[in-house]
Amino acid sequence: PPAVMQAMQRPMIYHRGATFRGFFKGLLKQLERVHQTEGSVLVLPGTGSAGWEIALVNTLSPGDQVLAVVAGDFGERWARVAERFGLRVSRVEVPWGRAATIEVVRPALEANPDVKAVLYTYNETSTGVANPLPEVGELVRQHGGLLLVDGVSAVAGMPLEMDSWGVDLIFSGSQKAWMCPPGLVIVGVGPRAWAAGERAGFPRAFWDLREYREQAGTGDMPSTAPLTLLYALQAACDLIEAEGLEQVFARHRALAELVRTGAIRLGYRLLADPAFASPTVTALLPPDGLEADTVVQELRARHGIEVNGGQGRLRGKILRVGHMGWVHEPELHRLLAALEDVTGALRGKR
Amino acid sequence: PPAVMQAMQRPMIYHRGATFRGFFKGLLKQLERVHQTEGSVLVLPGTGSAGWEIALVNTLSPGDQVLAVVAGDFGERWARVAERFGLRVSRVEVPWGRAATIEVVRPALEANPDVKAVLYTYNETSTGVANPLPEVGELVRQHGGLLLVDGVSAVAGMPLEMDSWGVDLIFSGSQKAWMCPPGLVIVGVGPRAWAAGERAGFPRAFWDLREYREQAGTGDMPSTAPLTLLYALQAACDLIEAEGLEQVFARHRALAELVRTGAIRLGYRLLADPAFASPTVTALLPPDGLEADTVVQELRARHGIEVNGGQGRLRGKILRVGHMGWVHEPELHRLLAALEDVTGALRGKR
Known about the structure:
- The structure is a homodimer of 350-residue chains.
- With 350 residues, chain A is an alpha/beta fold.
- Chain A has helices at 2-7, 18-35, 50-57, 73-84, 102-111, 133-143, 162-165, 191-199, 209-216, 227-243, 245-265, 292-303, 329-349; strands at residues 40-45, 65-70, 88-93, 117-121, 123-124, 129-130, 146-150, 169-173, 184-189, 269-270, 281-285, 308-309, 319-322.
- In chain A, 45% of the residues lie in helices and 16% in strands.
- Chains A, B: Its cofactor is pyridoxal 5'-phosphate.
């Protein structure tokens, strides 16, 4: 958004001064409102992928058992990070494109009563599925254990009530629905996660959330604040609050519906179970006889439009359209017109 | 610098596309030239403080013995990070303000023959001391073990010949002599560090340099590239190469001399051993009867000029003037005039 880009040109201020402290405390309050939490929301330098290990090393100890709910490539990557860090990882595998519902999570929890934490992806970017976080939150609360959530392509674009849903920790990246350049991880932390952190045995320094919390009390960060990105994030929060959270979420739902309807009309099929289709990203299977990657290439070559292909085991099989953050109807209409052109041209060639 | 700020307004490009890859490969080549290395220089999202653990987890295993050369607050903080990560840390303590010379490092190395790595701070920002890295590099090569270097306030402002000096790993932060906003860690990695990395037992994911190296081969980054900051870093490299590395270093030396001479004339004393006074930051002891923090406050209140106070055990005892990156004579003359005004006013009050 122009307002976000302009915010990055604001003059540098001293990152240990009163001006910065007032600014930063205000930003954290805005972030708490978006997370709907009375707990802490912290900002760290990094990208969304750092969230996987931030969540683990701040709440767990090597050898702890965790349940990784894997319904796509990002869930799979989080599970692998957990294994690298020496956690005992039980996987719940969900067919890619289906949702990770309580029906699949409950039996896994019952079979693994010692689970210290559930690793759950709110919005699986690789499949375009929005998983039912509120229901899973309630389930995990009943069972016990922490609910750690990858919210990378969800937070600020999809509803989140961190406290009432029982989310213990959720992280997101500045470049997704936050509409900013990449470079910040935003982490919401609830009281159970803080309590677990007191017992957590992983060594940690740069990712130690306790230090970020302590410094946040005075409006500081443990190391040099990434000021331009924080300016951008504040401008984005201003935009979100001016539009209104409910309206932001409604806009995302409407834009997703627009993309789905338009693509289906052209012969594409949703990868996602329609009941759980994501409001922020749509994954499409091409019409029979068309190669997904060819569609991606032609959209770029003929129209200068970038969409993503599949990743992990979906490589070459789907195309993915992001419609989160600073996206509105006109550019999605242009995208659908381009998709119609490319699809027609490729079909004509067969 | 204006050119750096303008670079951040360049349009966002797709971070997995050919345009990005060409841009990023070119940037890495520029960084290699500044490091004077045939090895790899990698860029990670983060701040300079992340460098401490990036260096450790990529080259060592829990329980390894390391020698931490502590000559100031940043050296001390690195030693503490090493302890947190379960390394056996032997400290060489150097009085703050003195240099960590081979005379103090050699006996410590001889007393600790099993040392796997030496943790060394090239420029100790807290004391304004530039430590003799070339000599220590030669010493460590003779002894064996890795030389891991905190180059946060040094690289791009002070000479560095990574390969010929025997530096195995050195990290720096974008917001120091690189003249950029904070948010990037730049890490130079030599062949011995890579070899050690193959045996290193620390779990790592986001900080895994092997993944950054693998992705750099095709001009990619493992997670979303912090594009605006990379644009800024490229603009800074362009400025540095246009001025010429030798000229950049000479300018820093001249500016440091200007600050030292001016401050001494006003009755301030150098904290640093003059033979090792830093070209990028000067630490000053106030004239007798003046409080350092009062000088810092008055510079801000009367002149709007920000200088730093002391940190760690030097809190309240010194003021520190940074003169690295995009700094030139006129603003340092203004600083010295302001310091003269404040010093005179405070002396008059006594």
